[in-house]
Design brief:
single chain; Rna Polymerase Sigma Factor, Chain: A; 2 domains; 10 helices; elongated
Length: about 190
């Protein structure tokens, strides 16, 4: 592929990954610009609002991308792939936390304080309660919920990331919504 002289901003994610495989630094820079903020937010939410740990995970994610770009299949969609890699990193993280102690111990109990700093007063309590309830679900269910309602991904994309059928994603979301509607009934 000859992309020399092209504007990197106009290239697709998949074209940028092809260039990154060929060691084009500008391709990596453009992918970082496109995805770093949303991936940081994803890690931040999934890691109990631990900003430092989210930043570490973001760094590790992009390090994996720059060190092993050839692991990406350029025939696939990059956005799905990056969330899959991030999800696998989180699974490993959660597994390590389970081995060495519980989530609250590992990430502290700063969640409500951080939410208060970022949200308006009327949404603080709801978000804190929602996150507390989400923490009661296993990491795979929580990931599906976060991808759907915070990252606004389609059922199809979530199914690819979670490596399960679309019907399973839908039933898990239905199950979670039903349980959350009961536990968060005070906010209706």
């Amino acid at each position: 592929m000859a992309f020399f002289g092209k504007n990197y901003k106009k290239l697709s994610d998949e074209e940028l990954m092809s260039l990154l495989i060929e060691r084009e630094k500008q391709a990596f820079d453009e992918l970082y610009i496109r995805y770093s903020k949303q991936m940081l937010n994803y890690f931040y939410r999934m890691l109990y609002f631990d900003k430092e740990r989210a930043e570490d995970m973001l760094h590790d994610l992009f390090l994996k991308i720059i060190e092993k770009p050839y692991l990406f299949n350029t025939e696939k969609k990059f956005s799905t792939w990056i969330y899959t890699v991030a999800g696998n990193m989180l699974k490993n993280e959660f597994r390590d936390v389970q081995i060495h102690g519980n989530h609250e111990k590992a990430y502290g109990n700063e969640q409500e304080t951080r939410i208060e700093n970022e949200q308006k007063v009327d949404s603080k309590l709801f978000l804190a309660s929602l996150n507390k309830e989400l923490d009661k679900f296993d990491s795979e269910l929580k990931q599906i919920f976060v991808l759907r309602y915070f990252d606004e991904m389609s059922i199809k994309e979530i199914a690819e990331i979670a490596n399960c059928p679309e019907g399973t994603v839908k039933s898990r979301l239905f199950y979670m919504n039903k349980k959350l509607s009961v536990s968060l009934a005070a906010f209706r």
